[in-house]
Design a protein that fits this description.
Radius of gyration: 17 Å
Largest sheet: 2 strands, antiparallel
Shape: flat
Helix content: 25-40%
Strand order of the largest sheet: 1-2
Number of strands: 2
């Protein structure tokens, strides 16, 4: 769900017998960890991107852009444009690419 909905939508969070993370809509984030090696590229993006692209599709587009010599900022712009213009995302699309330092 969108970030704004996790803060609002009190009708979905009115079960007083449930903890905040157990409500239908919650502000408790899903947090995971993974290992990243020097040189890896991390994709930080909102649901507007992932509503229209799978993780694999994003990874393939990032790899293709890096192989073509695209700078990270240009590649982030391409992902954003593809999500909106090609795939029709009607949500906020924010993309940041970060290379893990050597």
């Amino acid at each position: 769900l969108a970030v704004a909905r996790s803060i609002g939508d009190a009708d979905y969070k009115d079960s007083f017998d449930l903890e905040p993370g157990e409500q239908v809509v919650t502000c408790v984030p899903d947090v995971g960890e993974c290992d990243a090696a020097p040189g890896d590229v991390l994709v930080l993006a909102c649901d507007g991107l992932f509503d229209v692209m799978s993780n694999d599709d994003v990874a393939q587009r990032v790899r293709a852009g890096l192989d073509a010599g695209d700078a990270l900022d240009a590649l982030a712009a391409k992902l954003t444009a593809a999500a909106i213009d090609e795939l029709g995302s009607d949500d906020n699309v924010s993309v940041i690419l970060v290379r893990v330092p050597e």
